Amino acid sequence: MTSVANSIIEKELARNARQARSLRPVQTPRLAGPPTPLEFARHVRANLPCVIAGVGESWPACTKWRSRDYLESAMQGRKVTVSVTPNGLADAVVEGRFVLPFEQKMPFTELLDELSWQHSHPPPAWESGQATGAPPVYYVQSQNDNLGSSGDSEFDPLLADVPRDISFATAALGKAPDAVNVWFGSANASTAVHKDHYENLYLVIAGVKTFVLIPPTELFCLYEKPYTTAHYVPSSTPIAGDTIWSIVDDVPSSTTPWASVDPIQPNVAAYPLFRHCKPVIVTVSAGEMLYLPSMWGHQVLQQEEELEGGFRAAIAVNYWYDMEYGDAFCAVGLGVRLGRAVAGIEEWEAEDSESEPDVD
Ligand SMILES: O=C(O)CCC(=O)C(=O)O
Question: Gene3D superfamilies, alphabetically (predicted)?
Answer without folding.
Answer: Jelly Rolls
